[in-house]
Write a structure and sequence with these properties.
about 130 residues, mainly alpha, Rossmann fold, 3-stranded mixed sheet
Length: about 130
């Protein structure tokens, strides 16, 4: 069973720092496999964890809008791109960065896809 830890608060309250410290604690103490999800549009958890990201969910969504329909269903193709280009393997953890929203204040489609992917991915992680 996966144990979910969520960190929330006002901007500038240290959510990224606290998240990085929790991930580091779990990793160093080898308490299980970790999937870190950075749902902040600024996506800077990777910097606190010392890893580089190349793409976010938002980046892939933008690319998919430019390409149009793929041979498989649009959602299946989006999911494939997330697994192959967005999820980053760190030392003792994996990171899934959300990136920018669809538009001013709208996270609708990205949040739907993020929720679905986390549901699938989380089965493979302890945290």
């Amino acid at each position: 069973m996966t144990f979910t830890i969520a960190v929330s608060g006002k901007g500038g309250s240290g959510k990224t720092t606290v998240s990085a410290l929790i991930i580091d604690y779990l990793r160093r103490n080898k308490l299980g496999s970790i999937l870190a999800v950075d749902a902040d549009p600024n996506t800077n958890l990777n910097e606190a964890l010392g890893i580089e990201i190349k793409k976010t969910l938002g980046d892939v969504r933008e690319e998919l809008l430019k390409v149009g329909e793929s041979t498989s269903s649009r959602e299946d193709y989006f999911e494939y791109l997330i697994y192959s280009e967005v999820v980053v393997e760190g030392e003792g953890f994996d990171l899934l960065p959300m990136g920018r929203p669809e538009g001013p204040g709208c996270y609708c489609y990205i949040n739907h896809v993020l929720r679905r992917i986390i549901d699938k991915l989380s089965r493979n992680y302890d945290y």
